[in-house]
Each structure stands twice: as structure tokens, then as C-alpha cells.
Write a structure and sequence with these properties.
Blueprint lengths: L10 H5 L20 E4 L17 E4 L1 H7 L9 H21 L5
């Protein structure tokens, strides 16, 4: 993708206290205090005991994170959840770019 981290920034810690970028309708709690970094699972970038790079993740409230990880049932298909998560990853990357964490 051409992104690089300018300096060693802990993006997991940076996600805390931020607005959810996944925003699943009817699921999102819009509570920045519950936000975490939700890694996007994509074949070839993760596996058992191996998470994707932190740049491949979205800032998500705990409710959206539970939905995209399949811990709660929703009215959405798996593909719809993956799309909303991917859009959240793009929104999160834009935040990191604006703040100078990635370029």
C-alpha cells in the first residue's frame, strides 16, 4: 500500500478514547471509552496466533468489535460486516495519516 510508520507509534494505544470508525448501524455504541484497535483478517496477512499489522485495523467500539469478530449475532451477513470493517480501516488510516502516524 505504500504506507510507512514515521516513528514507532503504538497504534493499539492510540485507538483508545477515539470515535468508532466502523459504525455498524444498530450495533455501534458510539462510546469512545470502549474503543480498541480491531484488526482486519485477510488471507496471507494473519493466521493462528498471528495478527495482521496494526495499520490493517480499524478503531472500533467494543460492540462493533464483537460483531465483526462474530461474538454477537447480528442481522448483517458476514460480507456486510467485512465491508463495514474495511471501510473503518480506511477511515482509521486517514486519521493516522492526518496525525502523521503513517504516510
Amino acid at each position: 500500500m505504500g504506507y510507512s510508520v514515521k516513528k514507532k507509534i503504538d497504534l493499539t494505544k492510540q485507538a483508545r478514547g477515539r470515535e468508532c470508525t466502523v459504525r455498524i448501524p444498530g450495533i455501534c455504541n458510539f462510546n469512545p471509552e470502549s474503543s480498541v484497535l480491531a484488526h482486519y483478517r485477510l488471507a496471507g496477512t494473519c493466521g493462528t496466533g498471528y495478527k495482521p499489522d496494526d495499520q490493517q485495523a480499524a478503531i472500533a467500539c467494543n460492540c462493533c468489535h464483537d460483531a465483526i469478530d462474530g461474538r454477537i449475532k447480528t442481522e448483517y451477513t458476514r460480507d456486510e460486516l467485512k465491508l463495514m470493517h474495511a471501510e473503518g480501516v480506511m477511515r482509521t488510516q486517514e486519521i493516522w495519516r492526518q496525525e502523521g502516524f503513517i504516510k
